[in-house]
Sequence to fold (354 residues):
Amino acid sequence: MEIRSLVGLEQLVDRAEALTAALRGLSIIEPELQFPEVPLPLTLESVEAWLTTVEECRRKPRLARSKQLLEAHGIDTASIPAGVLESFDAIASLLQTVDDFPVAIQAASLSAVGRALTKDIADATSVVEQFCEAVDEIRRLEGQAVDYPWVYELAVKSVADDPVNGTEIYQQAQEVLQHALAAASCGVIVDDFETLDVALAVLLTFNEALAERNRRFAVEELSPGNDDLKNHNVQTATGILQQTVQRLTSEKQSLIQQVNALLSELESVGITFDVEATTVAELRARVPQLRAALDKRRRTLRKSLGKDVYEIVEVLALGDVPTRTQVDDTKLGAALRKAVKSGYRVRLEVPHED
Fold:
């Protein structure tokens, strides 16, 4: 109604009086309906707009209540059909359900509900049910993740972004939590992660490295310890585990080479050993045994051959021949004969053409 004269103003006043009488009765029927406050300062235009809004409340009180409730939850009602807004009880029930969600999920769920209401109540109900299922899943996690609340918080954030996959998110969070607990049991410091995906990747790598370290130590008949992992973060501890396995591999190769070299030296002085060592633990034990046997044999030979002959034989054992200035052929022959009698074996190899 456009105010162009005193008559128009009188009509506006009559309209306000009529609405006031109607609203008295409506407040009894719809006690929870809230009417907009009179705009201040008063102008003819603002009063007319206010009366239009109030008249809508009078004519469609349930629609008005739905608008008020939705807008109080931050949902824009401009695009929601009037027929949907008339379903106040259904809308109120949906919003009450959302209010019971974890705070971190409420904003995302309200946004989804608002979009769904532009279609119909059924769509909004389906959206809320999806969030309900996801929330029910991760709520079980809240009590389990007391020591690592960030796991629960990340799960809540993931559900807010993707409520359809609530079960999968809960399962992923559970897996992250189990890996975190396993790492902590080794004295490793498990810090917060940015996402569940990152947390799972990092913790899974650690526990795989831990399992591989333990497996290798078991195969090599060794007892692993975790003192080297304590007070390190997950990434550093993972590197320590991987380096430990690498060092173990290198040590085994070195021990095998030492055993073979000692066996060769023992064979050159007439002693044969049957070494069946295959693990690092066995090889560690055999190396000092073989070295002791070689030292004992050398002492025996040095005693039986004499110092001069033994020194000549040692040079020959290395594949060299002493020069004539060091020893003449007569002494060299005598030394060889005495060495053979004492158990040394002389082996001549045909030279290669090249």
